[in-house]
Amino acid sequence: MIRLLTYPLLTTFVLSFDPNTAQNQGDSTLICSTEKITVSVGVDVVLPCRLQPATDAESMRLEWTRPDLQPQDVHIHQDGRLLFENQNPSYSFRTRLFVDQLINGNVSLKLSRVTLSDTGKYRCYLPSIHQEAVVELSVVKSNVTGSHEPVQAVVGQDVILPCHLEPPFDVTTLRVDWIFNGELRVHVHRHLKDDPDSQHKKFKNRTSLFLDELHQGNISLKLTNVSETDEGNYTCYVPKLERQVNRGSVTLIVDQVEKKEVEQPDPTPSPDPPHLGPGLVAGIVISSLICLVCLAAGFIWWKRERMCPAQNPDEGQDNRPEDVPLQQQGQQ
Ligand SMILES: *[C@@H]1O[C@H](CO)[C@@H](O)[C@H](O)[C@H]1NC(C)=O
Ligand SMILES: *[C@@H]1O[C@H](CO)[C@@H](O)[C@H](O)[C@H]1NC(C)=O
Ligand SMILES: *[C@@H]1O[C@H](CO)[C@@H](O)[C@H](O)[C@H]1NC(C)=O
Ligand SMILES: *[C@@H]1O[C@H](CO)[C@@H](O)[C@H](O)[C@H]1NC(C)=O
Ligand SMILES: *[C@@H]1O[C@H](CO)[C@@H](O)[C@H](O)[C@H]1NC(C)=O
Ligand SMILES: *[C@@H]1O[C@H](CO)[C@@H](O)[C@H](O)[C@H]1NC(C)=O
């Protein structure tokens, strides 16, 4: 009985506690992205916000502002147009609403060619229905980092050429290119998929990105069935960000045969003197060390016996009774 009664009560409490519904006086709630949006300098970004349930926002006044700026207006929409008179100049010609989607309650703001100073908290406000929410945007300047150390592989193996953006940002929707020795296209990823038509035939069917890592800015390349002609310099970059972000590079070194395999065919220890040379030396050194330690220990024991022959048993007995009272004191 108690459970049946408390359940709806609890649900009501939880729902009204939700910050998004807390200010709901109409029948629609403004819901914006609660996760901080991190993007690179130079890209376009959408700050997602919508009215739920979907409500026609076409005729509403819609304010996108940054309270920390002066003037604070980023994009004010009223009577079907942008009120640019008081717009902060740094946002001139860089903001846009999805006007044809306002009717569905989509009040998202698109910012073009973001700069570092676009980092901040954006407030979306609909005065007529008293709805407001905040979206946090972080714009970072990243470096593309390949590998300082060359990557080594053996003919026929698969290899990962590491490359990532630091600090990381989501490159899922951006074009990513890999180039070999400054000329051949190794791999092109664009429009959310690989573009095999633009890659050199030498790399056909042999390359892939880690698609589920792209959102973390990881653009590492997997190259399969490595051959000697794959040896060289690989460059990774994001063409859209060429002006803001450098390129990364990785050097691949290809060995014809695995070095370990040359030594492995003879795993049985043969008493071949040249092969055992280092082993023997190590053995002698270790044995000598053990002997020295034994001798030293023996000498010390012998000396103690000689100097105070009757003390040893007494010491052992004295220690124990002392320990017990000490422990009891500690516990009290
Ligand atoms: C609003 O519309 C734009 C453009 O179609 C879309 O990219 C965005 O995801 C939509 N946002 C929401 C919250 O529906
Ligand atoms: C990017 O690289 C440049 C030089 O290569 C360096 O000065 C800068 O600190 C790096 N930035 C980051 C965020 O690592
Ligand atoms: C190579 O690509 C062809 C189509 O272009 C495909 O049929 C084949 O399965 C691929 N081979 C491998 C090993 O992926
Ligand atoms: C990128 O992804 C690859 C494959 O999962 C992984 O080996 C590598 O460590 C990742 N790099 C970074 C910087 O996370
Ligand atoms: C690997 O590449 C070699 C040529 O470099 C080719 O002969 C061989 O069939 C390839 N192996 C696989 C598994 O694709
Ligand atoms: C790769 O780059 C290194 C230094 O960046 C250079 O010394 C080397 O000659 C290059 N190798 C090729 C094959 O271009």
Tags for this model:
single chain, 332 residues, alpha+beta, Immunoglobulin-like, 2 domains, six-stranded mixed beta sheet, 5 helices, disordered N terminus, disordered C terminus, binds 2-acetamido-2-deoxy-beta-D-glucopyranose, membrane, transmembrane
Description:
It is a single chain. Strands 2-11-10-5-6-7 form a six-stranded mixed β-sheet, with no helix packed on it. Strands 13-22-21-16-17-18 form a six-stranded mixed β-sheet, with no helix packed on it. Strands 3-9-8 form a three-stranded antiparallel β-sheet, with no helix packed on it. It folds into two domains: 19-140, Immunoglobulins (Immunoglobulin-like, Sandwich), CATH 2.60.40.10; 143-263, Immunoglobulins (Immunoglobulin-like), CATH 2.60.40. 22% of the residues are buried. It has helices at residues 2-17, 19-22, 259-263, 273-307, 311-331; strands at 29-32, 37-40, 45-47, 49-52, 62-65, 73-78, 81-82, 95-97, 109-111, 120-126, 131-140, 143-145, 151-154, 159-161, 164-166, 176-180, 184-190, 193-194, 207-209, 221-223, 232-237, 248-255. Strand 5 (62-65) and strand 6 (73-78) form a beta hairpin. The protein is α+β, with helices and mostly antiparallel strands. It is 24% helix and 29% strand. The chain is elongated, with a radius of gyration of 35 Å. One 2-acetamido-2-deoxy-beta-D-glucopyranose binds next to loops. The chain crosses the membrane at residues 280-302. It comes from Anabas testudineus (Climbing perch). It is found in: Membrane. Residues 19-124, 127-246 form the Ig-like domain. GO terms for molecular function: signaling receptor binding.
